[in-house]
Design the sequence.
């Protein structure tokens, strides 16, 4: 899924909660906005509030201070931090749509001091349709009466929603990391197939723990790294058996003897190497006659 399905989506333009703390007025607002061809323009803005913005559709760019431009696409979360200079530009032809949570500066500074706001100003959360449902639930909590949802619970729900977005971004980064690790591992497992190789050594070469390596390899590749190595070797064996003797293939693939090779080949493929050769010889012979 590369973008959110917004068909039939009915979110409030704004749901707010105002409350007093220590003689100061605090506010939390959860807003949904379809910008169409007139998206808001923030150029070197220095807002006096916190905005946690989430792109649902469209594209744009985000720049923190004089830093590099970063792309905004569906699933991107970015912050408008109080008194921090930033710029955002949105493509008016992209039907830019977003939701965002706005808090007063005092609340934002308090949460930031407690470490409840991400130090990264832009995060790749990813496209998960359930995020819209969770945002709708947050809006309902902010609209509810204080007897239904007390102020403290409304604040907690808001923080929980933001933290869940952060966690999704963390999991996405972690997944991408392990996808790269598994890809590098596959390259290692597909080389020097005649040599014996330790899966612990592969993990060590990739600077990851063997336990985590094995778990994530199985999750991504659908099999253990050892099974992947065996499958790749036997795929090569099939090609070799078309023009080489079983004994020679076993030697080329680094098996200690033809019997060990034959046993593993049959276990994995369901036929012995010789039966495989006979079946392929029949196929080739039939093809030649035609």
Sequence:
């Amino acid at each position: 899924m590369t973008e959110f399905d917004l068909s039939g989506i009915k979110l409030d333009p704004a749901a707010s909660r105002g409350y007093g703390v220590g003689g100061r007025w605090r506010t939390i607002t959860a807003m949904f906005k379809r910008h169409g061809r007139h998206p808001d323009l923030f150029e070197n803005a220095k807002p006096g509030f916190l905005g946690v913005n989430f792109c649902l559709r469209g594209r744009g760019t985000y720049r923190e201070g004089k830093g590099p431009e970063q792309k905004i696409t569906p699933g991107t979360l970015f912050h408008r931090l109080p008194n921090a200079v930033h710029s955002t530009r949105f493509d008016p032809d992209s039907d830019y749509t977003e939701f965002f949570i706005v808090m007063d500066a005092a609340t934002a500074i308090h949460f930031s001091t407690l470490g409840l706001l991400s130090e990264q100003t832009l995060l790749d959360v990813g496209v998960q349709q359930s995020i819209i449902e969770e945002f709708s639930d947050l809006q309902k909590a902010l609209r509810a009466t204080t007897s239904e949802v007390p102020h403290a619970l409304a604040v907690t729900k808001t923080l929980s929603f933001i933290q869940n977005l952060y966690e999704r971004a963390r999991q996405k980064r972690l997944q991408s990391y392990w996808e790269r690790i598994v890809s590098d591992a596959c390259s290692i497992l597909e080389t020097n197939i005649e040599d014996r190789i330790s899966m612990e050594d592969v993990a060590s070469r990739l600077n990851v723990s063997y336990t985590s390596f094995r778990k994530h390899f199985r999750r991504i590749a659908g099999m253990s790294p050892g099974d992947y190595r065996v499958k790749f070797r036997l795929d090569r064996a099939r090609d070799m058996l078309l023009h080489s003797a079983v004994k020679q293939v076993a030697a080329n693939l680094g098996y200690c003897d033809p019997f060990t090779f034959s046993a593993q080949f049959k276990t994995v493929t369901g036929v012995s190497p010789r039966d495989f050769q006979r079946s392929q010889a029949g196929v080739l012979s039939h093809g030649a006659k035609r």
Q: What stands out?
A: The beta strands are 14-21, 24-36, 42-45, 49-57, 60-64, 70-72, 76-80, 86-90, 96-104, 122-124. The longest strand covers residues 24-36. The CA atoms of residues 230 and 264 lie 9 Å apart.
